[in-house]
Amino acid sequence: MGKKRIVEENQNEEPEELQEVKAKADNKKQKKIAKNQNKISKDVDFISFLKEDIRFLIQHRNQENEQKQQKAEEVFTKIEGILYQIAQTKIGGRTIQLVIKCADQNVRQQMFSKLLNDKQFGELLQSKYGHYIGITMVRNMVPEFRNQFFEILFKNANHYVAQGDASIVLDRFLTREATTQQVNKVKALFQNHSEKIDNLAMKIIEKGIHNHLLSLQILKVALPNLVPEERQKVIEYFQQLENLDYLRHKDGVSIFCAILNVTDKKERKNFLKNIQTYMQQSQEHLHRNSQFYLALQKVIFTYDDTKQVNKSILQDILPEWLNSIHVFKIIQSIYQPKLRDDIKFDTIGLQNTVSLKDDEIRIKELQDYCFESILNSLQSSETSILLESNINQFICYFISYIIKYTQVQAVDFIKAQIKQLLYFKVDTIFSRDVEQNGNYWILTQPEAQRIAKCLIQQQLIAQGEFSDIINNYCLKIQSILISNLKVTLISKAIYLLLALIENTNLKDQVLVEIKKNKKWIDKLEKTQSLQILYKYI
């Protein structure tokens, strides 16, 4: 029995190695407790040391008075020698923030100098309480220290970008204080895909700091190369309704475009549903924000289900197309292909798409949906489209759509434009020479000439009733231009003459009339437009 008991005791006894590990862990735990107690003791001492001063600054921090500044200077004098001893404690960090906020410019400069010129500043920004000091410095930036602050951030950017506390300071500086050159300099560190980018992206996803400026940049670059599980986490985060505020700025729209390019039909449908809700809850983002409309354009030209796009987006925004510049740009991009091909859109991924539907079919479906609403608003608008440059350009593309697809509902609209072009007179806007030639807008007004030329270019395309209307219009334009040939040849109206020659069946008739006047035409200054005409005569 005795031997058996001894064996059992030996079996229950822990190995020496395990006992040693446990002892070290317990010792470490005791040291941590002692350290925290010591820290608490220091905080208590610090609070009692500056209790009244801190209370005063808290009460007056949002007021403008000299007494507050004097008190801040007194506090700075007491703590300037122990800044880094107290900076990483809660009350100490708070006190430094109060001094920065409440002090006058002279004391603030001294505080910035003390903090920035200490080699520990870079580490301070990574601490729980120290990073709040960095945020306060950004909010109350002293201009002469801006570049020094930036250089510290830039030097540590690779580490800060995925470090929770420091990443906030870095983001605040880049979005509030940095120059365009400084932002671009930091962004350049994360422009090209690499293993480092993938690792940073994983940390960003893990820590949930997706919305920072550099986080958006890194995630955009890494997105196509992330493993499916991690990519899905990014998609799920950015499609959530409560996170859609990132669509307010360009970098947010950029990551949005990148995400749509790697999503499937179901995921894009979820995006569309949440964007519709977001629009309904936050109408001001559409009408006041210069970037949100780009996100909507990306959806419109990416999502294959145009009926759902019409229902979810266009239906809500169409009534505002003449009142909101951003809605107007969306509608403009549907009818004007050149806007969709603009190189500036390519930088945020608007040209890239995973859509399976033919682009021409999609555009036609979108144009058809918008057509009736646009037509009605133009016909009821009190603003003359001949006077509005942007709308005037849009009208030319809208007319081209009407004639190309023979939209007979617009016959009266086309007739109204022609009548306005041929007979509109306002004596105050014409010179005396032009008044003697009939006050025709098409002879002197570039905005009228743009629409006039567009209508001429439709002659060979127009069908049915539109064919008769455009033919008669071209004959009248020919008569006006030839009757006022001198004015025509020395003004922009010469391009209407060239349009008749190049885009209609009236070429021979026009050239016959011009050649009759060749002698005096030869005496005119050889402008670029006149040299083009000479190729025909």
From TrEMBL:
Transmembrane segments: none annotated. GO terms for cellular component: nucleolus. The keyword RNA-binding applies. InterPro entries: CPL_dom, PUM3. The keyword RNA-binding applies. One of its GO terms (molecular function) is mRNA binding. Residues 1-34 are annotated as: Disordered. Residues 349-459 form the CPL domain. GO terms for biological process: regulation of translation. Pfam families: CPL (PF08144). Keywords: RNA-binding. Residues 19-28 have a biased composition (Basic and acidic residues). PANTHER family: PUMILIO HOMOLOG 3 (PTHR13389:SF0). This is CPL domain-containing protein. It comes from Paramecium octaurelia.
